[in-house]
Amino acid sequence: MAGVCCITPPQDERGYSLKGVKRSPVVPKVAFTATISNTLSGLNNLGQPLVFDDVHLNIGNGYNKQSGLFLAPVSGLYLILMTISTDYSTGPDVVVVRNGSRLCATIPSMNDHLYAGSPCNVIVQLMQGDEVWAKVYSRFATDRIRDGMWSTFSVALLSMDGSTSS
Prior knowledge:
Its main location: secreted. It is found in: Secreted. There is one protein chain. By secondary structure, the protein is mainly beta. It has strands at residues 31-36, 40-41, 54-59, 63-64, 69-71, 76-86, 93-98, 101-105, 116-126, 131-138, 144-145, 148-160. The chain has a single domain, classed as Sandwich (Jelly Rolls). The strands form 3 sheets. It has a 5-stranded antiparallel sheet, with no helix packed on it. β4 (63-64) and β5 (69-71) form a beta hairpin. It is elongated, with a radius of gyration of 23 Å.
């Protein structure tokens, strides 16, 4: 038939048809890393968020450096990393919590002659709107949490999905 044109389905760069190919949803980038700007001592507020106020990365703006809370912008699988360094063995136990429920904890080293670092690392399913923060769980009179690169808190989205939290 003269004057009739056929519609060609879209093709990739090699000329293969993309008919029936579904696009994957765009996964937002969500990640933050923060440290403590000044050594903390005299930690009397058990249960209060431990604020990592020196933010080095905050893609997606999920972390609030005033409150110390990370608010999950999307549901998905997240990697949470925290290291707390203390002076000798007198540091506090610090926990990472999701909506108030403990996920993992640090415990100070029992070595009295070295600085002590303790990790708290977990992979967890978060729902959009879940709050994650670090808090002092127990303490000693001489507690000190070291600043700078010695004490860090990071969260990164690994994959996005609509699963329920567990």
